[in-house]
Amino acid sequence: MPKNINESFFHGKKFPPENEVILLFRGFYTAASGMIAQQRRTEILTNNLANVSTPGYKADETVLRAFPEMLIQRLENQALPGTANKRLPRLSYVGPLNTGAYVQETIPRFQQGDLEETGFSTDMALVNINMPENEAGFQGTVFFTLENPAGGILYTRNGNFTLDGAGYLTNAYGLYVLDDQGNRIRLDSDRFQVDEDGWIIQDGAPVARIGVAFAENPLALVKREDGNYQWEDGVLPSAYGQGNMSFLVKQNHIERSNVDLAETMTQLLTAYRTFEANQKIVQAYDRSMDKAVNEIGRIG
Fold first, then answer.
1. Which of 6, 124, 139, 148 is 20 to 30 A from 112, comparing alpha carbons?
2. Which residue segment(s) compose the domain that 24 sits in?
3. Is the model more confident about 107 or about 134?
4. Does Iron show up as a keyword for this record (predicted)?
5. Do residues 122 and 185 make contact, with C-beta atoms less than 8 angstroms apart?
């Protein structure tokens, strides 16, 4: 490309100025980043739909954020007044560049799900009655405690439990359910009762108390596989004896997913249409660049 592209002619036409080329690529990258963000949002929404029937599942929400703007300047030569061949470099202002949006983070929505009666004695659900808000304005919540095979404790709202062959209370994926002392719970049979305070009563006597932990800031939990969560700063405190909050344990019930099917379908359709709109913009820029390279810049 010649040093002064504004003085170059191809078939009697000027080559596009640098400002126009920069504007072309500016829109290209903005639209492309919009496609990537909407694709990621679509993946999260479809995962929510796939778990609409998963007990205790908490829907994920995406937070979109714009990339920081950048100021573009071009270095060029400017002729000195009264001189023929002397030029000095100077910066020419082009304009701000916004390279689009991206998915900054994914946040679970910990609102209470509806209860569903199952009739199975091993099924349990947690019901939030009074949950205090933290400094950030988010409500805390409670979780069942599970033994983590890799060490430590996992937390879940999925109370779809069962008894294994040895009589231990486990979840649907074979993880042991813990009591309020961090021990495994072993029962003689599935003929037992669980009161609203979490006590497991068998043959008229209390056997153990279901382990329930309280998370003041549930957004700080790390999401693991199978809908479980982990607290990486140690162990969450027990929810029993917390004077500023209250909850219930409901036997023969499970907590349904809090995914709103109609709302999620609407958001999914919106994300798809936004992706499609950005895709058409990218295709239009691609045709413009193809024309600039193969027609305007062609030497006959």
1. 148
2. 5-106+260-296
3. 107
4. no
5. no
